[in-house]
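sorry for the late reply, my laptop died twice this morning and i had to redo everyting from scratch. anyway the thing you sent over, i finally got around to it. pasting the sequence first so we're on the same page, its 214 residues, then the predicted structure underneath. double check i copied it right bc i was rushing
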Amino acid sequence: MTMMINENLSLEKCPALVLNADYRPLSYYPLSLWSWQDAIKSVFLDRVSIVSHYDRMIRSPSFSMQLPSVIALKSFIKPRSNPNFTRFNVFLRDKFSCQYCGSNDELTFDHLLPRSKGGKTDWENVVTACSACNVKKGGRLLKNSGMKLNQWPFQPTTEDLHRNGKNPVLIILSITEYNPFFVAPCSYAISLCSNSSALNFLIFSLSFFSSSCN
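ok and here's the structure:
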């Protein structure tokens, strides 16, 4: 498969999607992307296979090759069973929706046991909440707030997050309108998705990566 890109686009904006040896992305949160230098180095070290490439040549005095857009590791890397506790992973666990009202606008953290009362910032005490519900609950205990949780917080597995992170919606339409270098890796990522999650996951993940590249 060949991905068409603007020849004037900086190579720094031509990442390669990295798949595990089972042809699943190493990570969906954020999407596993390597720089073009790391991708080419791994090809020459025979650590990866090229699955797809950009319509762009890389040349030196001694060789030329098409720039990889999707690569797959030749050796399988076993995913971590327990993902790190991060803001993004909490949102992903909760499918980018407020655990009180279901909204996906202006999301933030809420501590079930407030920090002022000794509550910890961990998987079992933090839920995704919209700003309105977060303010409404304030520093009260859940039982005193008159609010109900849609789902009690829990420690997710990597597979839980992968399952929530697979999303077949149109990533390219929402992100690549202003980040054309996502077209190739994201086109392939879409083909690997099998169930629906939250559009906000895709926007958050890819726009975070794009901001680090600009």
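Residues 199-213 form the longest helix (15 residues).
thats about all i looked at so far, will dig more tmrw
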